[in-house]
Automatic annotation (TrEMBL):
Cited InterPro entries: Mito_RNA_Proc_CCM1, PPR_rpt, TPR-like_helical_dom_sf
Stated family: Belongs to the PPR family. P subfamily.
GO molecular function: mRNA binding
Regions crossing the membrane: none
Domain of life: Eukaryota
Organism of origin: Populus alba (White poplar)
Gene Ontology CC terms: mitochondrion
Keywords, comma-separated and alphabetical: Repeat
The protein's name: Pentatricopeptide repeat-containing protein
One GO BP annotation of this record: RNA processing
A Pfam family that the UniProt record links to this protein: PPR
Ranges for the PPR repeats: 27-61, 62-96, 97-131, 132-166
PANTHER family referenced in this protein's UniProt entry, alphabetically: MITOCHONDRIAL GROUP I INTRON SPLICING FACTOR CCM1-RELATED, PENTATRICOPEPTIDE REPEAT-CONTAINING PROTEIN PET309, MITOCHONDRIAL
Length: 191
């Protein structure tokens, strides 16, 4: 049974602690699987402790460990910590991927941190991680939810300039945004 698949995470920690007591040192794979399992089950503080231990041991963690931390922290609204983990990936020679960036952008959307969301999106581009359509859709979704329709549309135009073709998700997001815009106008005219 893989450690990351244990339902509660406490069993994984028990196995890990037993390994330590028996003198079996953890390697980067063990750390990565343990961190992934803990994050998936909501044990973020324990996962952060293990991440720190791995770094203290000078273990080079892979993208799975870091992306699991970014995902878990982002889902709990701890986006500043998630951003810190993302920056640590450079120290571990983990290449920035659109998938990990999208996890963080989703976190910014959940936390209603739109300016940080846009700033990070631009930073992503400057670091050579070209955002694919799914990242644009996540960004547009966040802007539409915050009723920043003109800004959302500016990203659609940017996509088109880059020859990205909007998909059904992009169009659905825009239709919802237009409906919200129409409702806002109707309410304004009623007054």
């Amino acid at each position: 049974m893989k450690i990351g698949r244990l339902k509660k995470g406490s069993g994984a920690v028990s196995v890990w602690e037993l390994m330590r007591r028996k003198g079996s040192g953890a390697d980067s794979t063990t750390y990565g699987v343990l961190i992934h399992g803990l994050c998936k089950n909501g044990h973020l503080n324990k996962a952060l402790t293990i991440l720190k231990e791995a770094e203290d041991q000078r273990d080079k963690l892979d993208a799975l460990a870091h992306s699991s931390m970014v995902d878990g922290l982002s889902k709990q609204g701890r986006v500043d910590e998630a951003l810190g983990i993302l920056h640590q990936m450079d120290n571990h020679d983990c290449k920035l991927s659109p998938h990990v960036c999208n996890l963080l952008i989703k976190g910014f959307v959940r936390a209603s941190k739109l300016e940080q969301e846009i700033h990070f999106f631009r930073e992503m581009e400057s670091k050579g991680c070209s955002p694919p359509l799914v990242v644009y859709n996540t960004l547009i979704n966040g802007l539409c939810k915050a009723e920043r329709f003109c800004r959302a549309y500016s990203f659609v135009k940017e996509m088109l300039k880059k020859d990205w073709k909007p998909d059904s998700i992009t169009y659905s997001l825009l239709m919802v945004a237009l409906d919200l815009w129409r409702q806002a106008l109707d309410k304004g005219l009623e007054r």
